[in-house]
Specification:
Blueprint (H helix, E strand, L loop, with lengths): L2 E6 L5 E10 L2 E10 L4 E9 L10 E4 L6 E3 L3 E4 L5 E9 L9 E7 L5 E11 L7 E2 L4 E9 L2 E9 L7 E6 L6 E8 L5 E7 L7 E6 L10 E3 L4 E8 L5 E7 L13 E7 L1 H5 L9 E7 L8 E7 L4 E8 L7 E8 L7
Antiparallel strand pairs: 1-25, 2-3, 3-4, 4-5, 6-8, 7-8, 8-9, 9-10, 11-12, 12-13, 13-14, 15-16, 16-17, 17-18, 19-20, 20-21, 21-22, 23-24, 24-25
Length: about 325
């Protein structure tokens, strides 16, 4: 049902935090790479021209800026004009609030030829979202830590990423909210899916905007339990695919609880519904991390014109450190009618 592919794997380099785009059948996967012994911190690219069956050797897009930080999760976005933007946070080691960790941009043309970057923006925070492009603005999001509590912010640009306006997306006194993925249902309506980080296995959270992100509803639950780092895309059927790490506890140490990579199908109505009991998602497993120090998720997704879905994520499994895997399947594989 779900086919697995090796994208990038090395015993000494930790590789994680993927994203994915498709250009006329060509797949571009971005991810972060770390080697703490050699103090290497890179943003890397792999490509595939056979629908993700085989991949090129990774090439380094960007090495570390200095010895005071590392690159955080990179995101890659194909804009309406066909040009491509990669963004990532330079995560400063002693920046506990994340207010001094800034997002940088790289620009590429329609064929993924490098134009310029890294360009420092005024976007603070970590785990940036893809850029969502509306008719008159671009938006993305990050989160910061304030007094031990995470706060999620929206950044809006009216000049194609030259300047950015910061506003509050969510400040919750109940939930520990972070790692947002925003989807535009139309030019005005946005849904922001969020990770809840208390370690209590709480559902995926969401907020809805009906005015291009100018204002947001309160936080509501989606019945997707223990959802860490949700990433959402729209499928050609009109349904929506969410991929995430199933992370159901908060234990001392690592492994044990971050070992299942999951997917979920839902409808537009599910995304707009605020009553949890009326939402009917279809949850399914994608991969299981067998490693005692398991660590998986942080995904990218595309759908080819013929309906083949391809997902990327990191997983440890049969390697000493995290590797990048690909997964392909079709929506019809997930439900027998």
């Amino acid at each position: 049902m779900i086919e697995k592919f090796s994208i990038s794997k090395d015993k000494k380099y930790y590789r994680a935090f993927t994203d994915l785009i498709e250009i006329n059948g060509r797949l571009i996967c971005s991810f972060a790479e770390m080697n703490k012994e050699t103090k290497e911190y890179n943003i890397c690219i792999c490509e595939s021209i056979d629908r993700g069956n085989t991949w090129t050797e990774r090439r380094i897009l960007q090495k570390k800026l200095d010895d005071n930080g590392r690159w955080d999760c990179s995101r890659i976005s194909k804009m309406k004009d066909g040009n491509i933007i990669i963004l990532s946070t330079w995560y400063i080691n002693d920046d506990k609030t994340k207010k001094d960790s800034y997002v940088y941009l790289w620009h590429f043309d329609k064929m993924f030829n490098y134009i310029d970057g890294p360009i420092k923006t005024t976007i603070n925070g970590i785990v940036p979202d893809k850029i969502t492009e509306l008719d008159d603005r671009w938006i993305t999001s990050t989160h910061e830590n304030n007094n031990g509590k995470r706060e999620t912010y929206l950044y809006t640009s009216f000049d194609k990423g030259v300047t950015w306006k910061k506003s509050v997306l969510v400040k919750s006194t109940i939930y520990d909210v972070c790692e947002t993925s925003i989807i535009a249902l139309d030019n005005n309506t946005l849904v922001a899916l969020m990770r809840e980080n208390s370690g209590q296995g709480i559902d995926c959270l969401k907020a809805i905007s009906y005015d291009k992100g100018e204002s947001w509803t309160d936080v509501h639950k989606m019945p997707i339990p223990a959802c860490h780092r949700p990433v959402i895309t729209k499928l050609k059927s009109g349904n929506y695919l969410i991929t995430y790490r199933f992370d159901y506890a908060k234990f001392i140490g690592k492994g044990i609880h971050g070992n299942i990579f999951m997917g979920c199908l839902c409808t537009k109505e599910d995304l707009l519904e605020t009553n949890r009991d009326k939402i009917v998602p279809r949850i399914f497993p994608i991969d299981y991390d067998r490693n005692i120090n398991s660590n998986c998720g942080y995904s990218g997704q595309i759908e080819f014109n013929d309906g083949l879905i391809y997902v990327t994520a990191h997983i440890v499994d049969d390697n000493p450190v995290a590797q990048i895997r690909g997964y392909s399947f079709r929506e019809k594989d997930l439900i027998i009618k």
